[in-house]
């Protein structure tokens, strides 16, 4: 059991080190993940959603990101939601955008509460 | 400009606007009465109260036990208003004004409590206008049921709660209690979805705001006292409803605790309407059109900007509850969350939220408006006063324009039928009112069949104008005679009835009417309400079985053997050939097998029996009564004291007999013997109180007969008297109402005593200070 914990800690440390050196890439990955989920993946996948969300939360812990980043993301998502709703009504893409908006708003609020 | 358009002036102007507006939705003489629960209490409040609110027996169909005492204070209030103004139009408009202006004012007062900053009151004005005009709040005014008063009650009660939490002053609890009494329908178990969707969340929110963010302390003793006073004050309707919930077999008990019902009515219903739910529509409030979407987008933008610029715990707290209510309203924030939501429906009682896209609308709107108010206040704080006033007016007017359909009265007077064009607002037809008065004056207690027959429980009544009423039967709820007007009402015989109608098996129909005590037919023969209507509401399903048009309906009634006893305009009333009465003594006992596939088929093969009673074989195995019939010519005189109490006098009865009572079987229908002199009063208090200490007779021989009704094997020897004796048939659940009313009156007296004491104390203190 102790060995397992040690291994997990080692893996987490390695991932953190890699991520620290590739801040832009990681954040870009999160952004691409969200856009891909909205525009290119037809079905709703919780695995993808929670993976991207977990990556963002992990990133904000490592990079000490402020809640403002989450809120700015929300602003972008809100604008995208507005445009998609006008163009295609409550379509799958619009619904996915709305879900991402809600999730990032929740992340931002929790982050800001702790700040 | 500041003095001219101070926040108080703007509040007054807006309130006056909302008070006056509903008077333009209807014209004098018009009424808006229809819908599932209908609003007949605006039309004839006293008759509605007498038939629906005072007794624990449902006024329609087979008369199931159904306590609805919660309507008493509210309908008495409406009766008072109608007595003063002599106009249902004015009463309806006043209540709409109360909801609109009251909702605005209450929300303004509440939001102001959170915004003690410069410009806060102007932000509260904008948010309050948004609250009453947003699409999630305006979409259900046309189907306004009792609990729709939550439009103004929710923010008002939340205001009292937050004031109590912040100031620890008991007077706010007193205000809460007194207002809750008048609007008791909003605090009864019938409004459980409205109560449990709003108060737990809002009280939690206000408690966190007051105790953790504002560091206030409140007296637990005062909270407990308030709770006890609340339950005491509402005991007159809560206690009977609680008994009904734990009464196995009752509608409420089955809905809450029956596992099959939980799955069917809760889980499956939730899954069925899940596809309709859209997160984007709720966030952007799209129902009111493009302008509303743009306003919602701008508000959400402002909210997010405020989150970026300010770190305010109260704002964050509101944000969390806003997101929580959005999730509860839409159920679609990730699949995992949806599955979790679905699992909640297996909790007994949670199926009350099966129509989640409607039940959580009010609390969602509440937090949305509050969030907007708080966000706008932080923006206004940085602006000059003149600019704040201008922005308040521009935004407020824009919100009102975005809800133009609602403001213009289109939502409260929309079309029901395209062809012929009919709307929900009507001027009552004098011919129909005359027919109702005729029905009310009939001396006997027999039941009606209302035609044309409908899919659910509706009656269709056209107005003098292009209005149309589709709602609960006025024959039952206003004229006080039980009727069967729809598929749901004639349960448990619904499918069987449709099949014999389609087969034109008039002999079996007459036998069924016999055991249901249906002696009259009410027919609205107007072709415009049945022939060639688009959409085919509310006849879509039953039209497959019933006559295709009004001409064929006339033939249907003729074949039933109906004799016309009244006609005025398109309304006819027929009396069917004499059959058994509400109470009758069985002359022939027919035992039928209790097999599901043969259910009610026994009626087909016994159409010529005289005073028959049908008993299933399993009941007969455990009761000797199936072997006994009585050939004596027993005379029976029945006097109805009220729907829960009957007095029956028997003569020439020496041997046992089977008494049948054509109301829904319930174990709490009991028989007592009594020798007190006959004295009539509406509630029969004298008879009831004398019955209280007596043992009910014949309880062991009380069985279900005829597939739904009550039967007693009466042995005159048990009473001691033979040849002539009197008994009382009583629905004993009614007594719970009498006892709980005493509790409520006592509690009200205590509250009034608290108020008077407080007033005197204040005068004494003022006097001492003056000296």
Please describe what this structure looks like.
The complex is a heterodimer of chains A (115) and B (771). With 115 residues, chain A is an all-alpha fold. Chain A is 86% helix and 0% strand. Chain A contains 5 helices and no strands. Chain A has helices at 2-21, 23-39, 46-62, 67-88, 92-114. The longest helix of chain A is centred in the C-terminal third of the chain and has 23 residues, at 92-114. Chain A is elongated, with a radius of gyration of 16 Å. Chain B is of the alpha+beta class. In chain B, 50% of the residues lie in helices and 14% in strands. Chain B contains 30 helices and 21 strands. Chain B has a 5-stranded mixed β-sheet, with helices on both faces. In chain B, helix 1 packs parallel to helix 5 (120-133), helix 5 packs parallel to helix 20 and helix 11 runs antiparallel to helix 30. The longest helix of chain B has 37 residues, at 734-770. Chain B is globular and about 95 Å long. Residues 675-680 of chain B have low confidence and may be disordered. The A-B interface holds A 44, 46, 49-50, 67-68, 71-72, 74-75, 78, 81-82, 84-86, 90, 94-95, 97-99, 101-103, 105-106, 108-109, 112-113, 115 and B 278-281, 283-284, 286, 293, 297, 300-301, 304-305, 307-308, 311, 313, 316, 319-320, 323, 326-327, 332-336.
Secondary structure layout plus pairing:
The complex is a heterodimer of chains A (115) and B (771).
Chain A: H1 2-21, H2 23-39, H3 46-62, H4 67-88, H5 92-114
Helix pairs in contact in A: 2-3, 2-5, 4-5
Chain B: H1 7-20, E1 31-32, H2 45-53, H3 72-85, H4 88-114, H5 120-133, H6 135-138, H7 150-167, H8 171-182, H9 192-213, H10 220-233, H11 235-245, H12 251-257, H13 259-273, H14 279-284, H15 290-309, H16 313-330, H17 335-344, H18 356-359, H19 361-380, H20 385-402, H21 404-407, E2 415-417, E3 422-423, E4 425-426, H22 430-441, E5 447-454, E6 458-462, E7 468-472, H23 474-477, E8 483-486, H24 494-503, H25 506-516, E9 518-524, H26 550-560, E10 563-568, E11 571-575, E12 583-585, E13 588-592, E14 612-616, H27 617-622, E15 635-642, E16 645-653, E17 657-664, E18 669-673, H28 685-692, E19 702-705, E20 709-714, H29 716-719, E21 723-731, H30 734-770
Parallel strand pairs in B: 5-8, 5-9, 13-14
Antiparallel strand pairs in B: 1-4, 2-3, 6-7, 9-11, 10-11, 12-17, 15-16, 16-21, 17-20, 18-21, 19-20
